[in-house]
Q: What sequence folds into this?
């Protein structure tokens, strides 16, 4: 629905009339009437063109709704009428449907265009024809005025580029419609006039010198929602902008006037209907309701909604109360279902809008033209979509949130602030024109921030791209600050300004003694850590002992920073955005807590959540578990998946021994890892690479453990291998655990018979052999684990079973007997080992000829004492195996022995041992054969049944019973013998001897009987019925049939003489049921039981039938045909007949169903078919019968009528004629031109008269030419039939001479003669051309067309005012008799633009070296035109950088999409390639110049350098540190790294020898120092860059070690047990034998090493010294267990400890004593020169 904002009255009236009006078409008129109208005009005034208007009832205000399609085609529908000023009247308006639009502009409901009726009381007389007199001198003087005012200065902009051209392609002369006068009547009569569909649109000509302005609107024909306002000046009718005039409110015909002050005489005051003519696309509202849901009280001076007679009811949906005196909404709460509420132009001042809260269904609310000062009391309306508050006194838009508001019109108020701007989540159009706030810079950008992405239009135009880009530069919390009253500022200042604004609001609520320094949120990414930053600074001038605690709560908003909802459990400093949070805003509230007092929260808002990169990253990585051999440790990774689907990740474990590189542990690829012996004294590295399900990999991270310790020695799974039987050897084994195994101990103990205790019998060996002494006793095996260092673990023992004596044995085992199927075999054996008892034998079969224990054996018997065995059938083809288990008399069994037969078991030939047949030898009985088979496995034995005439013959095979053991006796076997033959077949295909069993008696026939009996045929009179039966029981003889009739009462009567198997139904049988009986009789006269069929019927009469059918009458055009039909088939009813015209064999059409048929022209040459359908009286139809006539013959040709209409130049004349007599053929037509009008015989003998023959031939129509003007046209016609037969000729002459056509011009166009010079041309038509008039127009970008003063020739030179406009050439044709035609405009030229900006050259500053920045510099031409274009019309300069695809290739460049600025930083991948920059200049008119390019030489690598160098590590002396940085400067070669130490506060650096890798493992020597890494970048070609250094914080002692060191330092003296290496030869490998135990004593004064005493010696001090230099302690990086104490050059000692931690404790304690109590420097202790 498209409406004017301030003219909502047209909504209601349009709705009322749309329901009542009928659609009216706009008929196209002939061009002839246009000329007549011109001739009838006695006076020509200045014509005016007004857009199509829609009158709305009595108010008759101008409200226009015109379909875009109608506008584009209006040149054929527009009409002209001559109207004088005195004839202007107020007319009732008629309406026609107009298509409604929804909020997107789509057409939804078709309505009509409203057109007022206008007539000229003096000159508009229907049917009259007059010729205008010669044009007077004043008319000639007015032609120039007409030409200058021929186009509106503010034309309606075309809906599409094709709409204007489509208008000009229509007929050059507008049609004229004769319109009857309609006088003003009552309201009822006006409504009646609406229903008349005969109104036609008209173009009005006004004689008044000044015209009143009307407001009009046109609907975009393209279906868009764009609305333009058209206010046109008085002008002549134009084919470019035809329109339909409408009545004004004052009852006068109004012509549009130019709004421009230069072209308009004066400006009228705006009426309430025309206060704001801008257009807004309203949301669609269904308006099909009747009067019961509508209330229209506009302009009734209503003062109160509670007034009597107002009739407010709950059912009202459309309420129009504008132009009244309302000042209160009291009573409006009744309208609970209202959808449209118009309260414009009343006396509301506000507040007091609370009663609207009951209007839950309200969709459109109009409050324009009141005195409202505030909308704060306007409640939330859940369905409100349109709100107009224009022309009020609002100072802000503060109101409740409106969740569905799409359009907010607030123009012409006093709005000066955006404070309190409501939450409008779906707002699309915001209008705030003519408000003080427009002075605010970037108001549109601020509106975008407040509304969000739904905003599409601002102040009736699309959003500016520049403002949209500016809005993107503001942070997310800007909208919140604007609503709180923050003053909008430039983007670069907004961060500080909004922070200060918020701090100013929060400052009174912050904890005392604290200042807020920062409140921000990181840029949030999907599934990545988002951290908030709230930094408070303590004011040192105020003392407070309590610690400030911060509480957090995260919120999620919409796609605008509003409607934030708390996120459950998101109460930490960080939050991980989810996938559903993308494009939404985050808000975090921080609540300060001081001394258990919670202060009001402060907040920070993030930018919209961005989609994750898809590449995961590890946030935290650690290893958990005790580092002891055998334990399971597990790596834990905290991963940010960054939008990817969480995957498993890639884990691996590496083992790192002291001072060596980590090595991958094969197979350790899970998160868990069990420590093994190989890990002892090594640290483990856990590497983890996060991988998403999509395959995206993140950066791998690692975590390093401390050194793994060995477990205490132990043993498990101790067991004894071997059977506890006399003579066997037992072996004790166990699984050792706990480092490397040393000399573990083994012991064997034997159970005592007397005490039952175990006594030691053997040591030092794990094997033991049983003797006869051990029989009846048990043995115990003891395993004592000892590690490589000699540490002894807990012993484990295991006890055997009681030792048994040796069991009996079998020898000489054999199988005796023949290995054939069914044979008996026996096994024999010799048993040793005591007296044989009841030994047992079990038989098996196997496929193999070789034994493999019991593998592959299949038992064929149970284990038993009997040693004989009969071979079963199942053993055929297998080898026989006997298992002999020897048994002692006491039941003890020995080891079984096996023996296998020498060959496989053979089988017997197939044969039968019996064969028999059972069953009764009678027809229909079943015989069954059975037999016994022997001879291996039976295969598919053969079965056959035979029939024998005598017992001795060979018999006949019964094929259907072959292969079956059963046979059912059939009819063919009666009187014959039956035999069964079986041939045995083994499964290998070998057949045995067949055997046959012959029956002892012949087969007897069965008792005769019928299996079924039924009647076949329909129970219809005249139908022959048949018996269908199936006989069984030998050969059938003459069975007996009888037919019976059964009446409706059940009486059955036999039909005499009906004794056969068929019966013909007669008329006597109608109404009866019929059945048949049959007594079966065998051929030997044996009889069976009689069977009666089911009854069928009742019998009905036969169908009606047409016996004969024939035509009556002549088959000639104009004659009448009838027919005669003969009927049979019962009593005749109402038979039907149909006449058809046969066009072809398969095509015919029905023409009549009367008793006769009159032949017409359409029947000529075709045949007539009659279809007759017989119908019985009871309504039954018979089979239709048809006959077809011969071809219809045509009648003689006759010409009935011939007349010629009025003739006009170049308009085709088509005479009216009437022909009869068959199909008309190609007649002869002769056209004559006569100077006078011939009559009577002269006309009939025109061929002999002195006239001109114009044409002769077969063409009826004729087009008069210029030579025919003033002459009469005559036509001679000879009617001719299609077969060439001719009739009597006819002659006709025109009533009037040929008249000239009105002057028109076509093909008006403009061509460019030279630069800046244009020429207009056109083709004249319409008599002889006189002095035609020419004009030029300028069309601006908004569609306004302005006449160019002084441009009256066919050529035109462009001026500066024409820039960014289009030129149109106007051609007004004037005939030689001074008749003036319509002004025709050319197509607009292209936009007139100045010279295109050019770039003379493009230069690149900077070097083509990696890392350098290249900048493009344009050289502007020096000409004045170019300087003007660049200074005045240049819009922007665009750049695009290119790079060659391959190194060394200088021809093929590829664009770099992201490089579109005027500068470019050369990258590593550009080395060896050439770069190119293209530059294009764009002017304000949207044109672009030719690109200018500049190329570089091949890019050279830059000087190698390292950026962002840093050292990663946790800061303790046991950690691993790695150096990382970003290298640039070509491909990196062998860069150099050196690790150093630096004392805090000292500039000196101490080199760490041998540490030149990217990783460095700290040790106790680094404690107190900063680690420094110097990175010297080196390119692959050897070029070196400047060294860069990075350092750590001072290295601290690992907390566990520090705690232990502090404890020992506090004691003041401490002793350590260490090992001393007496042999320090560098070639000798350290072993256990070279280490001796020592005691290291350390106190505050000195250190000494003491050799402990023994049984033969006293303790001795080997070395002693104070901490004075050169005393120092040295470490060995290749051995973490070793240290060296140096007192002086002659006194030093190498010591070893078990763990690295112990070594670190000793070193730190010594250095601690030395520094704390002796002031010895750390450099001295490290033997480092200061």
A:
């Amino acid at each position: 629905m498209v409406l004017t904002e301030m003219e909502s009255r047209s909504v209601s009236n349009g709705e009322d009339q749309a329901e009542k009006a009928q659609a009216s078409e706009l008929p196209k008129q002939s061009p002839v009437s246009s000329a007549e109208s011109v001739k009838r005009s006695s006076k020509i005034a200045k014509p005016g063109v007004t857009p199509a208007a829609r009158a709305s009832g009595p108010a008759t205000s101008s409200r226009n709704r015109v379909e875009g399609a109608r506008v584009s085609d209006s040149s054929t529908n527009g009409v002209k009428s001559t109207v004088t000023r005195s004839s202007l009247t107020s007319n009732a308006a008629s309406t026609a449907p107009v298509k409604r639009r929804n909020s997107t502009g789509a057409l939804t409901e078709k309505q009509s265009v409203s057109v007022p009726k206008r007539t000229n009381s003096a000159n508009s007389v229907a049917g009259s024809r007059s010729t205008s007199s010669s044009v007077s001198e004043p008319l000639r003087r007015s032609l120039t005025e007409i030409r200058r005012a021929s186009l509106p200065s503010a034309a309606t902009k075309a809906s599409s580029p094709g709409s204007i051209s489509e208008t000009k392609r229509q007929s050059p002369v507008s049609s004229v419609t004769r319109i009857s006068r309609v006088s003003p009547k009552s309201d009822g009569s006006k409504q009646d006039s609406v229903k008349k569909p005969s109104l036609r649109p008209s173009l009005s000509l006004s004689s008044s010198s000044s015209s009143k302005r009307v407001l009009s609107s046109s609907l975009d024909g393209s279906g868009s929602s764009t609305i333009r306002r058209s206010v046109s000046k008085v002008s002549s009718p134009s084919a470019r902008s035809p329109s339909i005039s409408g009545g004004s409110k004052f009852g006068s015909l109004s012509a549009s006037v130019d709004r421009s002050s230069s072209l308009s005489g004066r400006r009228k005051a705006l009426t309430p209907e025309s206060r704001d003519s801008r257009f807004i696309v309203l949301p669609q509202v269904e308006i099909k309701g009747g009067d019961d849901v509508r209330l229209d009280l506009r302009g009734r001076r209503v003062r109160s909604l509670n007034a009597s007679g107002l009739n407010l009811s709950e059912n009202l949906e459309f309420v129009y109360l504008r132009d009244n005196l309302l000042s209160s909404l009291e009573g409006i709460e009744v309208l609970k279902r209202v959808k449209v509420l118009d309260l414009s132009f009343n006396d509301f001042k506000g507040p007091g809008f609370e009663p609207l809260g009951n209007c839950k269904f309200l969709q459109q609310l109009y409050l324009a033209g009141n005195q409202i000062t505030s909308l704060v009391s306007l409640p939330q309306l859940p369905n409100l979509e349109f709100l107009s508050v224009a022309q009020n006194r609002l100072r802000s838009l503060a109101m409740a949130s409106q969740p569905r508001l799409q359009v907010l019109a607030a123009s012409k108020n006093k709005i000066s602030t955006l404070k309190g701007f409501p939450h409008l989540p779906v707002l699309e159009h915001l209008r705030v024109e003519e408000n003080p706030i427009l002075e605010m810079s970037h108001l549109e950008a601020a509106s975008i921030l407040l509304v969000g992405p739904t905003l599409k239009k601002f102040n009736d135009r699309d959003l500016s791209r520049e403002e949209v880009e500016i809005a993107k530069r503001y942070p997310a919390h800007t909208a919140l600050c604007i609503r709180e009253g923050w003053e909008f500022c430039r983007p670069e200042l907004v961060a500080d300004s909004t922070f200060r604004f918020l701090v100013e609001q929060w400052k009174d609520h912050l904890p005392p003694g604290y200042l807020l320094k920062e409140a921000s949120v990181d840029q949030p990414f999907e599934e990545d850590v988002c951290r908030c930053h709230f930094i408070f600074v303590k004011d040192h001038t105020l003392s407070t002992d309590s610690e400030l605690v911060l509480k957090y709560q995260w919120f999620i908003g919409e796609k605008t920073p509003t409607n934030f909802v708390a996120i459950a459990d998101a109460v930490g400093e960080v939050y991980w955005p989810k996938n559903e949070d993308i494009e939404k805003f985050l808000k975090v509230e921080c609540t300060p807590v001081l001394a258990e007092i919670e202060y009001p929260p402060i907040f920070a808002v993030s930018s919209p959540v961005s989609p994750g990169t898809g590449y995961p990253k590890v946030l935290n990585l650690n290893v958990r578990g005790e580092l002891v051999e055998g334990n399971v440790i597990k790596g834990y990774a905290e991963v940010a998946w960054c939008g990817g689907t969480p995957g498993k990740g890639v884990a691996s474990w590496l083992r790192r021994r002291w001072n060596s590189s980590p090595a991958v542990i094969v197979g350790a690829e899970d998160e868990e890892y069990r420590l093994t012996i190989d890990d002892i004294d090594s640290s483990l590295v856990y590497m983890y690479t996060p991988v998403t399900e999509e395959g995206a990999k993140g950066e791998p991270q690692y975590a390093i453990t401390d050194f793994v310790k060995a477990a205490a020695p132990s043993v498990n799974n101790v067991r004894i291998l071997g059977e506890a039987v006399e003579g066997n050897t037992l072996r004790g084994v166990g699984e050792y655990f706990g480092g490397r195994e040393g000399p573990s101990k083994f012991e064997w103990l034997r159970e005592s018979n007397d005490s039952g205790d175990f006594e030691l019998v053997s040591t030092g060996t794990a094997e033991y052999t049983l003797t006869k002494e051990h029989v009846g006793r048990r043995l115990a095996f003891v395993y004592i684990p000892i590690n490589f260092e000699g540490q002894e673990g807990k012993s484990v023992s295991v006890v055997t079973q009681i030792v048994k004596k040796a069991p009996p044995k079998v020898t000489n085992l054999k199988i005796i007997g023949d290995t054939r199927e069914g044979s008996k075999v026996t096994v024999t054996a010799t048993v040793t080992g005591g007296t044989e008892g009841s030994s047992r034998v079990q038989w098996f079969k196997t496929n193999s000829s070789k034994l493999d224990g019991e593998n592959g054996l299949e038992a064929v018997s149970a284990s038993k004492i009997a040693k004989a065995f009969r071979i079963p059938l199942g053993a055929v083809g297998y080898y026989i195996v006997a298992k002999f288990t020897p048994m002692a008399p006491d039941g003890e069994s020995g080891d079984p022995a096996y023996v296998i037969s020498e060959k496989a078991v053979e089988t017997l030939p197939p044969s039968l041992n019996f064969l028999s047949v059972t069953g009764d030898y009678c027809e229909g009985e079943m015989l069954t054969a059975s037999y016994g088979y022997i001879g291996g496995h039976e295969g598919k034995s053969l079965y056959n049944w035979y029939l024998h005439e005598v017992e001795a013959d060979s018999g006949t095979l019964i094929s259907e019973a072959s292969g079956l053991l059963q046979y059912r006796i059939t009819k063919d076997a009666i009187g014959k013998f039956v035999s069964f033959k079986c041939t045995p077949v083994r499964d290998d295909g070998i057949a045995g001897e067949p055997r046959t069993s012959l029956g002892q008696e012949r087969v007897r026939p069965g008792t005769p009987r019928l299996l079924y009996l039924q009647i076949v045929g329909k129970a219809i009179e005249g139908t022959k019925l048949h018996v269908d039966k199936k006989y069984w029981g030998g050969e059938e003889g003459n069975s007996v049939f009888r037919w019976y009739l059964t009446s409706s009462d059940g009486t059955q009567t036999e039909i005499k003489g009906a004794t056969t198997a068929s019966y013909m139904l007669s008329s006597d049988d109608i109404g009866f049921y019929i059945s048949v009986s049959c007594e079966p009789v065998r051929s030997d006269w044996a009889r069976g039981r009689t069977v009666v069929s089911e009854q069928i019927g009742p019998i009905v009469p036969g169908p009606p039938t047409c016996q004969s059918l024939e035509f009556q009458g002549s088959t000639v055009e104009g004659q009448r045909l009838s027919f005669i039909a003969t009927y049979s088939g019962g009593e005749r009813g109402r038979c039907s007949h149909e006449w058809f015209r046969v066009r072809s064999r398969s095509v015919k059409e029905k023409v009549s169903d009367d008793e006769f048929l009159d032949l017409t022209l359409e029947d000529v040459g075709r045949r007539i078919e009659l279809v007759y359908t017989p119908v019985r009286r009871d309504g039954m139809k018979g089979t239709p019968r048809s006959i077809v006539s011969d071809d219809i013959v045509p009648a003689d040709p006759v010409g009935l009528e011939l007349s010629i209409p009025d003739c006009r130049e170049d308009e085709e004349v088509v005479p009216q004629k009437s022909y009869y007599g068959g199909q008309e053929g190609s007649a002869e037509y002769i056209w004559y031109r006569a100077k006078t009008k011939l009559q009577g015989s002269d006309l009939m003998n025109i061929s002999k008269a002195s006239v001109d023959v114009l044409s002769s031939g077969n063409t009826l129509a004729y087009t008069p030419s210029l030579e025919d003007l003033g002459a009469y046209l005559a036509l001679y016609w000879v009617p001719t039939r299609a077969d060439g037969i001719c009739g009597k000729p006819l002659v006709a002459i025109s009533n009037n001479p040929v008249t000239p056509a009105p002057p028109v011009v076509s093909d008006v166009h403009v061509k460019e003669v030279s630069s800046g010079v244009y020429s207009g041309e056109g083709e004249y038509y319409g008599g002889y051309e006189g002095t035609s008039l020419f004009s030029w127009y300028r069309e601006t970008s908004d569609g306004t067309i302005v006449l160019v003063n002084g441009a009256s020739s066919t050529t035109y030179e462009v001026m500066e005012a024409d820039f960014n406009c289009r030129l149109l050439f106007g051609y007004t044709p004037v005939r030689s008799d001074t008749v003036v035609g319509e002004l025709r405009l050319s197509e607009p030229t292209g936009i007139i633009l100045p010279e295109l900006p050019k770039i003379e050259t493009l230069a690149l500053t900077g070097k083509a070296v990696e890392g350098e920045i290249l900048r493009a510099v344009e050289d502007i031409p020096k000409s004045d035109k170019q300087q003007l274009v660049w200074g005045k019309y240049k819009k922007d300069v665009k750049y695009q950088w290119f790079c060659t695809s391959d190194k060394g290739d200088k021809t093929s460049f590829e664009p770099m999409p992201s490089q579109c600025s005027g500068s470019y930083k050369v990258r590593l991948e550009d080395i060896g390639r050439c770069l190119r920059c293209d530059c294009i200049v764009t002017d304000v008119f949207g044109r672009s110049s030719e690109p200018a390019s500049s190329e570089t030489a091949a890019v050279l690598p830059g000087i190698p350098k390292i950026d962002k160098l840093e050292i990663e590590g946790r800061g303790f002396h046991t950690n691993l540190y790695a150096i990382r940085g970003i290298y640039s400067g070509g491909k990196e070669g062998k860069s150099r790294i050196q690790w150093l130490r630096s004392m805090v506060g000292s500039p000196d650096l101490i080199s760490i020898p041998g540490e030149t890798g990217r990783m460095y493992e700290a040790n106790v020597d680094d404690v107190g120092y900063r680690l420094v890494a110097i990175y010297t970048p080196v390119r692959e070609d050897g070029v070196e860059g400047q060294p860069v250094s990075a350092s750590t914080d001072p290295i601290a002692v690992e907390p566990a070690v520090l705690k232990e060191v502090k404890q020992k330092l506090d004691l003041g003296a401490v002793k350590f047990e260490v090992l001393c290496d007496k042999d320090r030869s560098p070639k000798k490998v350290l072993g256990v034998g070279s280490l001796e135990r020592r005691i290291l004593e350390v106190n505050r004064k000195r250190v000494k090493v003491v050799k402990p005493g023994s049984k033969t010696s006293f303790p001795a001090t080997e070395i002693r010294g104070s901490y004075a230099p050169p005393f120092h302690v040295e470490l060995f990086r290749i051995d973490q267990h070793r240290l060296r104490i140096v007192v002086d050059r002659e006194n030093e000692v190498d010591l070893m400890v078990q763990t690295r931690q112990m070594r670190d404790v000793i070193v730190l304690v010594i250095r601690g004593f030395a520094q704390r109590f002796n002031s010895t420097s750390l450099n001295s202790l490290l033997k480092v020169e200061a």
About this structure: The chain has 16 helices and 104 strands.
